[in-house]
Amino acid sequence: MTYSWFSRIIVLGYKKPLEREDLFELNESDSSYVVCPIFEKQWRKEVLRNQERQEVKASFHKEAHARKPSLVYALWNTFKFVLIQVALFKVFADILSFTSPLIMKCISICSKKPFQYFYLSKFPWPFLTIFMLTIILCGRYMWVEGWALLLSNVSRKRFSTGEVINLMSADAQQLMDLTANLNLLWSAPFQILMAVSLLWQELGPAVLAGVAVLVFVIPINALVATRVKKLKKSQTKNKDKQIKLLNEILHGIKILKLYAWEPSYKKKIIEIREQELEVQKLSGYLAVFSMLTLTCIPFLVSLATFGIYFLLDEGNILTATKVFTSMSLFNILRLPLFDLPTVISAVVQTRISLDRLEDFLNTEELHPQNIETNYVGDHAIGFTNASFSWDKTGIPVLENLNIKIPEGALVAVVGQVGSGKSSVLSAILGEMEKLTGVVQRKGSVAYVAQQAWIQNCIVQENILFGSVMQKQFYERVLEACALLPDLEQLPNGDQTEIGERGVNISGGQKHRVSLARAVYSGADIYLLDDPFAAVDVHIGKQLFEKVIGPSGILKNKTRILVTHNLTLLPQMDLIVVMESGKVAHMGTYQELLSKTRNLTNLLQAFSEQEKAHALKRVSVINSRTILKDQILEQNDRPSLDQGKQFSVKKEKIPIGGVKFAVILKYLQAFGWLWVWLSLAAYLGQNLVGIGQNLWLSAWVKEAKHMSEFTEWEQIRSNKLNIYGLLGLMQGLFVCCGAYILTRGSLAASRTLHTQLLDNVLHLPLRFFETNPIGQIINRFTKDMFIIDIRFHYYLRTWVNCTLDVIGTVLVIAGALPLFILGVIPLVFLYFTIQRYYVASSRQIRRLAGASRSPIISHFSETLSGVSTIRAFGHEQRFIQQNREVVNENLVCFYNNVISNRWLSVRLEFLGNLMVFFAALLAVLAANSIESAIVGLSISYALNITQSLNFWVRKACEIETNAVSIERVCEYENMDKEAPWITSKRPPSQWPDKGIVEFINYQARYRDDLGLALQDITFQTHGEEKIGIVGRTGAGKSTLSNCLFRIVERSGGKIIIDGIDISTIGLHDLRGKLNIIPQDPVLFSGTLQMNLDPLDKYSDSELWQVLELCHLKEFVQSLPKKLLHEISEGGGNLSVGQRQLVCLARALLRKTKILILDEATASIDFETDNLVQTTIRKEFSDCTILTIAHRLHTIIDSDRVLVLDSGRITEFETPQNLICQKGLFFQMLTEAGITQDSVTK
């Protein structure tokens, strides 16, 4: 009951920084494992009840508004017993709170019999069991994740990752905050009713005047609440937009840096943020009005009551007992009057959050019944007259599919970009909306997505994917997927942690890990979406031979392979040729070759070099060559130590006290003018408040000594007028203080957010590759929420309480000087308790803040791989993992709440000692001092408990919430990139020749690592085409990163057209270079915005580049054409189309130097040839550096640069290199490219 069992944590936290292991665990009944299933059961019941209600209405032909299942009912049915229990405790606590004024009244009347009353004085009641409500929090995150895994594609378009993260953080937080104060909805009116009834006993019918004032104010507060609701809705939309855009920016940060687009996207976020702050400003002004009514209501109620009290009967005289008992009741009235509008506003805001959560929980789910899985037949997969679209009302993407795939068959799905190849796999998985026909599927499924999805965990866990370890089979899978050499080179083998989105492994490794995961699952059907696109040619051959092909591990399984590699077709049992969403041709290789000109044309489009790749001619590559080829693919870095730098950094949790510099940082952002003005306003407010009470005391004192009633009548109106004037002055000070606070807090929010955004965008790319995105998003969501909404409130309350406590002590000490003797030890105890509490509470808050990031990271990761998770049928496992990370957060939250209760009980006890001491002195000195002074002292003593409690708690809140400012400012001191713009600017036409020169260039990724590039010296000619080749890990991508200064030099220099690139700003450099990257990254927004985010080019120029990229026809077929909305991550375009949009971007930005990083890996060979022709033609007057994985793309280069272990080994024309028979010749031979085909 006194929470003494928690003292161990408090003392431990004072001695050393607390760690997660030190905290108390959750009760099992409060854990997400217990609470979630109960809630889910109640929610399903509510959904069924709602369906029954709708059916009944329909049977009576009632056209009523369709009612959604209610989240409130589901919550009530889940937690009603806890809520009722807490309500009973609250009733008891409220009744006890009214004993203080009654006891004070008794002390005034019976001052000679003190001790029989003291034991009742302000009896502490520690049953404020707010924590019992907080278990409602337990399920929030899991409901969201659980439903997110079931969302259909149309629902996923409605709810972006940013919006769902916002549901988890802001909306769940809103609901949690309300649960702590939910009882105030009925408790505040109950307290007001009790206060009014006790006032009636003191002042009779005059109290009705006060009630009239209350009734008058209620509709005004209702109007304010309605306005707040509207503002909250628009605020939530702005937050959703901001988090959605931020999430995409952080995932596509490499593109932003390469294209120097940071200022453009920074401007977009700041525009959304300004809309958010505008709404916050209006909310702040409404808060000014609320503060005015809050301060003025008790004063207006007392003024109206006393005024009518005198008018009702001229014989009514104010005595000390009446005045100070009434004033105590008015003070008690102040809290429910303050709480009621606040809780009504919170209910209004929570209603919006509930609506959003209801919308999410009621969104359309996938329909597993679209696919028949329990049928008996001889085919593994069957489509009969089946048509599909991405949403029910959309245009069919696949039409009239009639395909029967026998069990154990190897099937190829081929076709041009956008023909519907990947959509066929999505239809088999049930990811699309079935419009017509029948789909049948027999057995379990494994899926390898076109863009490999990798989890942030060790390599082994990625491959096992929840399955039991079978060592022998595991080794066999690793060997077949060509992963053994990689694992030998990784610092911890298969125990090496892979970063978020697989940032610390290459594209080829991602695909092979993804393939290994599928193979290890032992499924019946394998859906493989172009798994060879990102791997080198000879590795692709090995994967086909040992895994997918007729002699591979999966030879007896059903395999459906989407591919652009047409040389594999002779090995296939069945070939499906897709064209515009329909099956154009289907049959074996020989059947199609004899019947179909189309396939012949496709094969003719194949270059001669690629024909030479036919698998029939491949000889077995010895294991030593494979090992040589598989040197660590970690971003092309040769040194084995390099892998260590990629261990993903866990969030650093600060220890010790929050430095004053952090608070100072906030005050500087707040603005010193606003700081001093707000202090002056709050000082004035408190001085006037004390003046009011002293005036009343003097009034009562004078009334007592009045010899005649007429004398009393003369001063009465005068005293009442001055009392009213003081009240109005106090209201004015409050109004000014609230206005100043709003202006200052907006300035602080704007400044800190801009600094955070600026710091994040200036961080080097390495930071984003080694830190989970969830950590950064957490700062923009949870931490900025505290800075925007809470911190200034805590600061204001603390200043107010400090002035209040000082005023109270001075007033009591003035009346009862001996009171100082009692206060000194109590103040010492207060500070001791505060010191112990803050040390523990601060660290628990930090642990809670850090434990939120894994929730967001896991959730974001789950959403990005939702198709893979559903294909493997692992939804429940991921929901379980989410419950685990949420439980970790709840443990911190639980300990935080208990620490607050621990503090509350001890502060209440000390406050009651102070009241007891003041009352004792007042009674003992009753004969020597005026009853008015006694009344004033006890009245203030009763208030000091609340003020001191608030003061200590808000001091703690300031320190614990300052952690958010600390976290937001954390990136300020991290190493940044070089300046974007410097005083030295290159000429506007630079570079005009395109001559790139490396002179003794050296580069390393980190100071403590070996050199990634060593002594690189070469020079290109103007308008020369250079191919850059090398084994995996030779340093090809590092070279391009150095050109863009993503990696800075360790020695030497790079000169472009006579200018050393290290002497100019990053944006002057990056803005003048051009790159088509390997990963096609698009952002949500219009197609036009994706092509031209800086809005530099005309529509005609955009159409021109779309035509050159063979996208014009596709874009013209879209209803909105250039304004077509691209979904998050470009999800509504195929990967090939995304790659072509990236090519269009480069064509639009045409500069003198172009870097191609295997830019055509995801498109079919026909389109690839067209694209290569376009690049040669459109960039004929440019210097082109091509980083090649498919060697045929650089065969026609003017010269080829061959890298090995970070050094240049060969640099000559392709013909000369072949004659030299060095490393380049060896690579050509392994790839099956003959000397004849090169000569051609």
From TrEMBL:
Residues 158-349, 676-950 form the ABC transmembrane type-1 domain. One of its GO terms (cellular component) is vacuolar membrane. The keyword Repeat applies. Pfam families: ABC_membrane (PF00664), ABC_tran (PF00005). Its main location: membrane. It comes from the Eukaryota. It comes from Ailuropoda melanoleuca. It is found in: Vacuole membrane. Keywords: ATP-binding, Membrane, Nucleotide-binding, Repeat, Transmembrane, Transmembrane helix, Transport, Vacuole. Belongs to the ABC transporter superfamily. ABCC family. Conjugate transporter (TC 3.A.1.208) subfamily. The lineage of its organism: Eukaryota, Metazoa, Chordata, Craniata, Vertebrata. This is Canalicular multispecific organic anion transporter 1. The chain crosses the membrane at residues 71-92, 123-143, 206-225, 285-312, 680-700, 720-741, 805-833, 909-929. It is a multi-pass membrane protein. Residues 381-605, 996-1230 form the ABC transporter domain.
